[in-house]
């Protein structure tokens, strides 16, 4: 299992963690566009997001990318906070801006890797009839039926870059109501 700063990310997990992905089904690039799209979808009765749960790989899966991205975002927050401190000389400012640039580059790379890994894993799980659950009314989950899989492929493909990702400790089934969160990443427009 991967490590961040020399510490194992998830302890010694022997069972695969559960990945919950919320694919956001909008194509807006501004808050106004997002509001308009959400209102239109509500009026039509179509969903705003598609939420799936499936098991990750035990070693080096989506969970490790999510945790790495979470760590990189926290690093960026810390560097930004240091940039706000006063007083600061020119050299220190330059070093912090260089570090911030590296953090941003790392975040962009990890986001692309995570998005691709999640889509590939979701497709793999559905193609090979592995357990996959979908959110229904009132935040309840049910198993995905075989006749739904093709439509889900299309929705995932369309929303592959707009995801909220949550990784939970291993569970016996994917229909659990409350799980212990390990890591998360949230998509911001």
What characteristic shape results from the CA principal axes? globular
Calculate the terminal CA-CA distance, rounded to whole Å: 31 Å
The strand order across the widest sheet is 6-5-4-3-7-8
Task: Find the structural class using helix and strand composition.
Answer: alpha+beta
E-strand count = 8
Number of individual domains: 1
**Major sheet details:** 6 strands, antiparallel
Q: What is the beta-strand fraction? A: 15-25%
- Name the assembly state: single chain
Structure description:
The chain is an alpha+beta fold. It has one domain. 45% of the residues lie in helices and 19% in strands. The protein is built from four helices and eight strands, in the order βββαβααββαββ. The strands form two sheets. It has a six-stranded antiparallel sheet with strand order 6-5-4-3-7-8. Strands 1-2 form a two-stranded antiparallel ribbon. It is globular, with a radius of gyration of 19 Å. The model is unreliable at 4-8 (pLDDT under 50).
